[in-house]
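Translate sequence into structure tokens.
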Amino acid sequence: MKQCDNGHFYDEARFDSCPYCQESAGVGKTVAANSIGKTVAAVPSGGVPEGDRGKTVGIIKKQIGIDPAVGFLVCISGPHRGEHFKLCSGRNFIGRAASMDVPLADDDTVSRESHALVTYDAKHNNFSLSPGQGRGITYCNDEQVEMVRPLFAYDIIEVGKSQLIFLPLCGEKFQWKEE
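Result follows.
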């Protein structure tokens, strides 16, 4: 973890600079274009490389090719009921902040950052659930999560007022292969 000049902590393996400071500057956000209701991505003041002009290019996709879904969390109870969240390989943070991989902004009982963590380990082809660094307690199938534990299809993760059902894509029958 790295701390920016404004005091925010962020994962420098995932972000080149503080995502919270960028959030307030509008970088990485979608903003309204004129009054016609279309949207365009806000770009840093350095501009866009010549080959990427006019395209929407994800940073991870640009660096490693693809960042496919390995599973999903679907909110079955709470303020985000009916919404789904894509999980990618590696660590997926759950919290209220927009910079979280699973942003539960409307659940004020969820910690802003890192309430919980769902990890997909591509090397061992398995999922795990960990408590985060926030103050809130995480439950899985009504049991408190105090340390890393395996996560299985249809497990119910409870953070704040939200219940999320875990639906894996990768597992015994399917796993993404590098091409």
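Note: The longest strand covers residues 69-77.
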